[in-house]
Amino acid sequence: MNYTEAMDRYGCDRPDLRFDMAFEDVTDLLGNTGYGVFRQVIGAGGSIKGFCVKDRAEALSKNCSRTSMP
Fold first, then answer.
1. What's the CA gap between 54 and 21, in Å, rounded?
2. Which pLDDT does position 51 carry in this prediction?
3. Which residue from 69, 6, 66 is spatially nearest to 32, judged by alpha carbons?
4. DSSP 50
5. What is the pLDDT of residues 18-51, one digit of tens each?
6. CA–CA distance, 13 with 25 (Å, rounded to integer)
């Protein structure tokens, strides 16, 4: 894996691959979000990325709960 791919998928140039926690681009899923920070990033041409942490939905921020997601 080259530097650019490592930074894009893992956010660092020496990723720990043991945990399979690569970033996924979710910009398309959040295109119509009411969450201001995400709207600003998308509006400026940026992207929103995240990774799945299974069985931890209850620990999400109150500003980004399941009910507020599209």
1. 11
2. 84
3. 69
4. E
5. 988 899 999 999 888 888 999 999 999 999 998 8
6. 18
Could you give the dihedral angle defined by the CA atoms of residues 19, 58, 7 and 46, in that order, rounded to the nearest 10 degrees?
160
Structural contact between residues 67 and 34, judged by C-beta atoms closer than 8 angstroms: no
Backbone conformation region of residue 68, classed left if phi is above 0, alpha if psi is from -120 to 50, else beta: alpha
Residue type, 20: D
Give the up-direction half-sphere exposure of residue 41: CA atoms within 13 A in the CB hemisphere. Answer: 17
pTM for the model stands at: 0.67
How high is the pLDDT of residue 64?
57
CA distances from 43 to 1, 36, 40 (A): 30, 10, 5
Residue with tokens 């109150």, as numbered in its chain = 62
| Residue type at position 43 | G
For residue 49, the tally of other CB atoms under 10 A from its CB is 14
